[in-house]
Write a structure and sequence with these properties.
The protein is about 35% helix and about 20% strand. By secondary structure, the chain is an alpha/beta fold. Strand 7 (about 175), helix 6 (about 185-195) and strand 8 (about 210-215) form a beta-alpha-beta unit. The structure holds iron/sulfur cluster.
């Protein structure tokens, strides 16, 4: 951590990382120091295309850029390059999980899932999580802190580096479904997504980046107001407040009625389909009656339902649904006219469920009630 006297003029972060910056931020910084903003391109390419982990003399910059970088680095400008504490590959080779250690020692998880012809990364937005969902290993750990934009960007770059080093193609899709609630860290998340969707860098199309929320209503309304281009996924898991609060305690703060109102406002303002996540738990929310209640709840919304098989955790003893129950649930939704997909169960052997690898490595924090 650097002293305030050395605080660089970064847009988001009191401690300063070049990975916190959008391309436009970098241009502004150069210009403010009398360096032509066009030079932002060479720095950006080295960081976001070359996946550099430093900006030392081995990188061949033009003299004005070299001088500017050396000056900034000597004043404490940092890069976000977390170390890989653990890297696991599933037995089928299709799911890889990284446990990344941040500068202050916090560890977050990043998962890369391979599908035919494409890779998807799932990144974390917070260290721990305050939402307390009972079936989630991260929720069981509690909240530690928000990640900065650069720490979110760095996960994408770490995933890219891993794919490059194994000779695989780059990332095509990004989901914010790792540790943490993205809409509880709104500004950092949106800044990070601007950076990774920049066509001069990681170039992940905004339409292929999905923000997943457990139902933070103010965040959904803000996405709508700002007409952010990223698809929205809302985790529901239950259709009445009593059952949902038992699974997702934050439902007490934003009950289903207000959540569904926010979704309708989002749909009306953005004309975008909303993806609703439903983690199937045996006999808890996987009966035909639950499916019919979900149909009623989503009536009138442009909705796509993603059914997710539960990744069991030590603290939550519910089982994953039988295949026949999952199939019946899905058919009821489809017959009612909703698009519905079942997410493939991936990476159980690498603890790919959110927070499971970090949890295995040791608890991190406390629940914020
Ligand atoms: S499911 Fe998501 S929102 Fe809920 S506790 Fe886990 S990380 Fe947090």
């Amino acid at each position: 951590m650097q002293s305030p006297a050395h605080k660089p003029r970064f847009a988001m972060d009191p401690f300063g990382s070049v990975h916190d910056l959008t391309f436009a931020d970098l241009e502004r910084m150069l210009e403010a120091d009398g360096v032509r903003p066009i030079h932002a391109g060479s720095v950006w390419r080295v960081l976001h295309r070359g996946l550099a982990t430093d900006l030392g003399p081995e990188h061949d910059f033009l003299p004005p850029v070299r001088r500017w970088l050396d000056s900034q680095l000597s004043q404490g400008m940092r890069l976000d390059c977390p170390t890989v504490s653990e890297a696991l590959v599933s037995t089928d080779g299709a799911t890889r999980k990284l446990l990344l250690r941040l500068e202050d020692g916090q560890e977050v998880e990043t998962v890369v899932m391979g599908y035919p012809g494409r890779y998807t990364a799932c990144v974390s937005t917070q260290a721990g999580c305050a939402m307390g969902c009972v079936f989630c290993a991260t929720g069981q750990m509690g909240f530690v802190r928000n990640l900065r934009p650069g720490e979110i960007v760095a996960q994408v770059l770490a995933a890219q580096r891993m794919l490059r080093d194994s000779g695989d193609a780059g990332l095509r899709n990004l989901v914010l479904m790792g540790m943490g609630e993205p809409l509880a860290n709104y500004d950092a998340v949106i800044q990070a997504l601007r950076i990774v969707s920049d066509s001069r860098g990681a170039n992940i199309s905004p339409s292929r980046i999905s923000i997943s929320t457990v139902g933070v209503v103010p965040g959904i309304l803000r996405l709508a107001e700002e007409n952010q281009p990223y698809p929205l996924a809302v985790s529901l898991h239950a259709t009445n407040d009593e059952e949902r609060t038992a699974l997702v305690p934050v439902n007490q703060r934003w009950p289903l009625a207000s959540l569904l109102d926010a979704c309708r406002i989002y749909s009306a303002k953005t004309s975008r389909k909303i993806f609703f996540g439903w983690t199937l738990m045996e006999k808890i929310n996987d009966t035909p009656e639950h499916a019919r209640q979900l149909v009623a709840l989503l009536k009138g919304l442009d909705a796509h339902v993603n059914l997710i098989h539960l990744n069991p955790t030590d603290q939550f003893r519910a089982g994953a649904s039988e295949a026949s129950a999952a199939a019946l649930f899905k058919s009821i939704l489809q017959e009612a006219g909703f698009a519905c997909t079942t997410r493939q169960r991936r990476g159980i052997d690498v603890a790919a469920g959110c927070g499971q690898l970090r949890s295995r490595a040791g608890a991190v924090g406390k629940r914020v009630e």
